[in-house]
Amino acid sequence: MARERQLSRRSLLGGAAAAAGAVALTTTAAGTATAASALTTVDVAVIGGGIAGLTAARDLVAGGKTVAVLEARDRVGGRVVNLSLANGGVTEGGGEFIGPTQDRIKALADSLGVATFTTYNTGKNLLYKDGTRTPYATDGLLGSVPPVDAAGLANAAIVQAKLDDMAKTVPVDAPWTAPKAAEWDKQTFESWLNANAIVPSAKFLLDVACTSIFSAQPRELSLLYVLFYIAAAGNESNAGTLERLTDTANGAQESRFVGGSQQVPIKLAATLGDRVVLSAPVRSVVQSGGKYVVTADGVSVTAKKVIVAVPLPLTGRIAFDPLLPAARDQLSQRMPMGSIGKAIAVYDTPFWRADGLNGQVVSDSGVVRSTFDNSPPDGSYGALMGFIEADQMRAYDASSTDEVKAAVLKDYAAYFGDKAKSPTSFVLQRWDNEGFSRGGPVAYAPPGVLTEYGAALRKPAGGIHWAGTETSTYWTGYMDGAVRSGERAAREVLAAL
Ligand SMILES: Cc1cc2nc3c(=O)[nH]c(=O)nc-3n(C[C@H](O)[C@H](O)[C@H](O)COP(=O)(O)OP(=O)(O)OC[C@H]3O[C@@H](n4cnc5c(N)ncnc54)[C@H](O)[C@@H]3O)c2cc1C
Question: Theoretical Cys-Cys bridge with 427: which of 93, 344, 380, 457, CB 3.0 to 4.6 Å?
């Protein structure tokens, strides 16, 4: 039997009061929301309560529209999540860093009163290669480039400059129209690197950069997509560069959010009050009489327009009637999520700092090949965060947490010494195993996809509009791209309503 539920998630949203004008949604007993009486009408239904969906909802509400955000999980934030530590602290299991030219996420955080602090970057980085640890300064002539042999460094510099130059010819709003789009989209990044990064140590540096940025191997990515991603690592007045993607100081890893990155979507959701419905995985979107009936487990909403703000491949898990245009569905079939996890080991102190190390590693072996110092701003305890990426993550997707922990701590000990073997706690977040993400940080394009299907990325399907970081022009794959995509989708809908 249908029952009215004024959806209240005050505890989940940090004590936020319900916003004025909240939409009263109607629910039925779990999973049986089919009766016509169970429908509530809004102007816009937003599917997905990640940063993109919430941003779109904020702008629609500001534009005077009624909105319901249907979020599958029992929390907001999607690929951004705060994880509680046994010592009372908080760490981040997903998106975490922001940097220069990521103007929209910064503006959003500022508007919500979420402050940033500089990522710990004092002391030397570590290169771990062929079983040897080499600490290196990042303020020398080489900047942040790990000190491989001279021939490799020279080759890597040429490759990097080439990639940046090629990226300058790729329009961020239509990479498939780049003059050499066809040539670049029919090869993998791997095949291009094999022809250009000819010194083995240069190839190593580019491979590590690739897996760190995409959580995918170079063999999986279209060269055109990599160039688009580089072009997107900037803003309207600053061309994107590979360096901005990889760097900590002056790069995408420059800053973190006080209290953890999920503060941003949590506080944003709080401004939307009961318009945000949690634990409501959308199963179908049915067009009927010029409106859309969006049905989630236990909740149905009728809306004039729909914004879909879920990870791109997950669009295909929602049943659309009528079917989506073939090109849009093919796109979601052909852009898989990267494979990624984060392993955070917590210690009483950030002991590596006393050894003159900043906690950042670049490695050619192990399950974790890239690390950061994830300690809180006051350094009151230590946290080492390691990325588990691409082939390494896939190798451990089915392993137990204890097995992953043993492998990770072996790596941390090789990088930072025996003290690393004894954390006070250990947190593991595996995105491939998250039902409403199925990987991360982003859905990427293998060869042939952008040129054939790219034009379908943002093209509305009737009254269905597309948000999500994958649909952003600048900083696609990042929190900033998620904000930009939500703002753009809301503009489209406001113009159409
Ligand atoms: C390990 C990791 C590290 C990262 N590091 C960084 C970083 O340092 N800096 C950075 O800027 N970015 C980083 N990112 C990327 C960043 O987190 C994402 O780009 C961004 O959060 C995407 O936001 P979104 O709203 O587009 O998508 P999502 O956050 O994926 O939100 C989509 C929402 O849709 C929901 N959903 C899915 N299916 C349904 C359905 N059927 N019905 C209803 N809801 C549904 C999901 O639960 C989710 O809440 C990282 C990501 C990962 C995984």
Answer: 344
